[in-house]
Protein: Integrase
Organism: Staphylococcus aureus
Amino acid sequence: EHYKTHSGSKPTTIKEKKSNTNTVKNAIDSKVLISKITHTYLQNIINEWAKSHSIGHVQSLVIVIRSVFKYAFKYHDLHDISVLDKIDIPKKAKTRNELQAKRNNYLEDSEVKELLQCFDYLIKHKRHATRKRNYEMVKALVEFQINNGMRIGELLAIKTDNVDVENKTLEIDGTINWVTDTETGAFGVKETTKTSKSYRTIGLTTQSINLLKKLTLRNKKENQWNTKFIDRG
């Protein structure tokens, strides 16, 4: 609760922190007083986490531990938090598969072409009208994302007033948080970008402008035909 009140973090970050906090709580015996926790006790827990989690996730869990000790030091007169200086996160050498996965973390032009051709095949051979429209929408989204290097949350958060068709620019000023909007009932609420540096304006090609027009038109039609459709703007 203290973190939610004072951190200024977005709901997605708070949700992640809550999950990490539950992991830490489950790992530490509830009968053990914080003043009695030793660095050896904590290190054994961290070592176990390191066996099954990524270094990044373990770091997030250790941050929770450090935050709890510092909170107790500041507000509950815990006098000694030197255990924090004695714990560390085991480093693991990257496997061949991990290195290969990092190198392959993008699509070659031939793979992009194959992916779009798969969408064309599905669109052509699907008889169900709704599924055909869905594939058309997803293809346009994927194509736009590939052309402009956007996070999927940023792409889905685009509103019509973010697009300047005349000057061929797009203002990226938010991302989607997947929670229900209490005002509209829509699933997905637009929030600020992941970081301040993510807020940006990019130039658009004629192809990207046409893709956005296609998506906008499709949303307008869906809004007319589908009573369950909720337009987020």
User: Anything to note?
Assistant: Residues 2-101 form one domain. The first helix runs from residue 2 to 6. The longest strand covers residues 175-180.
